[in-house]
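Discussion board: Methods & Data

I've been asked by a reviewer to show the raw model output for two of the constructs in my manuscript, not just the figures. I'm not sure how much to include, so I'm pasting the format here to get opinions. Each protein appears as its amino acid sequence followed by a line of discrete structure tokens. Is this the kind of thing reviewers expect to see in a supplement, or should I convert it first? Here is construct A:
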Amino acid sequence: MAFDGAKSTKRIFRMVVRWIINIVIVLILVKAFSFSFDFMYNVFSSGAKNPSDTKVLTVTVKDDSSTSDVCAALEDAGVINNKYAFVVKLWLDKASIKPGVYEVSPSYGAKKLVSIITGNGDPDATATKSSK
């Protein structure tokens, strides 16, 4: 039996390409599951972004502010991790954001933030409603 170099090379090349494709698929799946877990953790977690950070930030919610705008402002201020996860959390809680000026902190948990910006108030944090 003669050794056919071209057929063997093609066979090895196909095998290597299949392995590379399988590895890429596995990496994509791992990344997708990791992203999904992080997103769901942010939606259903009630923990604070940074419990040791006690600085208080002022967030102004205007009458025409959308939920995503408010969540983006909270994310930019460093109060929440993911604005999209917080939007989903508000949607699941059937909460609506009320206009006003609120003092929030990265040490506040998600439940506390939701109760503050929905106007339900929180005894541990100060929230002042604007008079419009």
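Construct B, same format:
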Amino acid sequence: MFYDPNFEPLHMTATHDDMLGNNGRGRYIFVPGSDGRALKMSEYFDEVTAVRKSSRGHNLYIGTITRDSTTIDIGVISTGMGAPSVDIIVNELLKLGGKKFLRMGTCGLLQPAFMKGGDHAIATAAIRDDHATKCYTPAEYPAIASMEMVQASVTGSEKVKHSGSIHIGIFHSKDSLYAREFKQGAMAEQNAEYMAILKRAGAVASEMEASMIFTLCNMADAHRKDRALMSKDRVLCGTICGVLGEEEDFGHPDMVKIMTDEMVELGIQTFIELNRMGL
């Protein structure tokens, strides 16, 4: 359904060989929303071995990272903003043979009673408040992070110094930032009530991409030929976000820089732990 040995991507210049690595488990891939953040994340690599330039800004940076005598093959590529853009980029990566994806980005907090800007949030699942995922599965199909990826993120967090707190829970993935979050348009009252319901239900953060990543990767993993639980062919996904403020509060630049540095290190430790788990 997804992997295609003859596939030639339409929106990037990545190759099948770029997806290889980590002793057959596949290259670990960060999927942030912006190419600027992707470039920033590539600066954490010990070595950038190649850059696959894209006219659309979906540049793939590949290389290696070493932590505590463990070296992993890693890459980072921008998905763009929103589920439709993620749909294109993650589908093309899956068709090329990509297997391990970790979204790294920002989110708006939904629980100010115990969260604040500068914290970090690890997604266990995502509310599918988008339309792109509904082109693939009915609304009842859950968008969940891979259990192993969540475990790796939680374990990895113990090795990262962080100025804020780390939270774990259900994310909200929306189509419209301005309607749902900023209450623009004729449905402002309905959007405000919808967001209030999610807060009462315990959703911890709101963003725009996790539901699409989770839906695609869970379907791809369900269609792998090797059904072993610890198969090298497992398709795994997760999301870690730096927490901004509520609604239009995008945080002070100094806070955002510290939060981003800590988030990237948490992502690196997640993949190091996943590698140690043999996945």
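Answer (T.O., handling editor elsewhere):
This is acceptable in a supplement if you add a one-line summary per construct. For B, something like: The chain has one domain: 17-276.
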